Please model this.
Amino acid sequence: MPGVTVDKNHCKGCELCVKACPQGILSMSRKLSVRGYYYAEVHDSSRCIGCRICAITCPDVAIEVHTHGTTYSLFEY
Ligand code: SF4
Ligand code: SF4
Model:
């Protein structure tokens, strides 16, 4: 099963990944990060298809996707 990791301390709360996810499984937290932003989080990881669109979309390289034994982050594929 793919896994998605959001680095909440690099997230600036722009919500681009939330809008981009074709599965609609990303949402914004109700808590603030140490930088004072609401951050993205995965709320139903079992439905993730490992498409990496969230990682590609994130302008702050705050998302990593782990699928098929490989970890993908922006510019590393
Ligand atoms: S890898 Fe694809 S399905 Fe999974 S959270 Fe990211 S955009 Fe959504
Ligand atoms: S696209 Fe990146 S910076 Fe924007 S909300 Fe998602 S994880 Fe945070």
Remarks:
- The chain has one domain: 3-72.
- Residues 3-72 form a domain with the Alpha-Beta Plaits fold (CATH 3.30.70.20).
